[in-house]
Amino acid sequence: MIVITVPTGNIGSQLLDLLLENPTRSEELRVIVRDPAKLSDAVRASVDVVTGSHDDAEVVDRAFTGADAVFWLVPPNPRAPSLDAVFADFTRAAAKAFTANGVGHVVGVSALGRGTPVAGHAGHVTASLAMDDLIAGTGVAYRALANPTFMDNLLRQVVSIRDNGVFTDIIDADRKARVVATRDIAAAAARLLLDRSWTGTGEVPVLGPEDLSANDMAGIMTDVLGRPVRYERQSVDDFRAALAGYGVGDAHAQGLVDMMLAKDDGLDDAVPRTPETASPTTFREWCTEVLASAVQA
């Protein structure tokens, strides 16, 4: 039995599709979901559904009964009082349930940066790494998918890209950095969940195939979309104001600022790209297959 959290999210839904479509899978699938109506009829007919939040001790105890492996992802909570509440506190009930129910393997979505000078003050990344330590401390075999910035984050700016030809961030326009497609993260999770010959704890970097600057990405988007797209670097103050306008709380906003400034200071650069750490989807492919459809919708 494999349990999947956040099965209606970007990564979880792609992972669920991969597992359902895998002809070699012999195990049952179970999902934890707040609203089962968000699952398609076909998915609901194919998986065991546990309704509720996976920070609830009773919910995870039911969900992990008989489970051999768990895919763990913490959902966003932009109004949480602290990042510890978002990550480690959210995970505590599950950490106890892993042990109580004899779960053998856990694959979690995490971040790059462990061991770097800036990792201790990198906002969401710092909190995510603390969550990894909490899970690893249970004794379960654990693999943290260590990811850079998601290409899919640009989907939050589809309206601006479509209507104004602009996307924004607070990072240096010419700083080359790793970016990854969420479908590659889902694929890495599927491989680990289906082949559980691994033991102990560790990280599995998913780095994407290339380093790109914001200006590089703007050029690729311009080519693919057939319209000019440019990058504008926001000030930190303007970034905070925009987040506040969307109802984002102070802790979440500060975490995002700290994370992005740490990335600009080399947070994601320590792990070398190798055939094992590179993932296949290029930014051009992602723009062609994902962003273009979103812009045209």
Describe the model.
With 297 residues, the chain is α/β, with parallel strands linked by helices. It has a domain at 2-148 and 180-207: NAD(P)-binding Rossmann-like Domain (Rossmann fold). Helix content is 43%, strand content 18%. Strand 2 (29-33), helix 2 and strand 3 form a beta-alpha-beta unit. The protein is globular, with a radius of gyration of 19 Å.
Shape: globular
Helix content: 40-55%
SSE topology string = EHEHEHEHEHEEHEEHEEHEHHH
CATH homology group of the domain at 2-148 and 180-207: NAD(P)-binding Rossmann-like Domain
What's the β-strand tally?
12
Would you identify the regions where 5 or more consecutive residues have pLDDT less than 50?
none
Q: If you compute it from the alpha carbons, what radius of gyration comes out, rounded to the nearest whole angstrom?
A: 19 Å
What gap, in angstroms, lies between the N and C termini? 37 Å
The SS-based structural class is alpha/beta
List the helices and strands and how they pair.
Blueprint: E1 2-5, H1 10-21, E2 29-33, H2 41-46, E3 48-51, H3 57-64, E4 69-72, H4 83-100, E5 105-111, H5 124-136, E6 141-147, E7 149-150, H6 158-164, E8 166-169, E9 177-180, H7 182-194, E10 201-205, E11 211-212, H8 214-225, E12 230-233, H9 236-245, H10 250-264, H11 283-296
Parallel strand pairs: 1-2, 1-4, 2-3, 4-5, 5-6, 6-10, 7-9, 8-12
Antiparallel strand pairs: 9-11
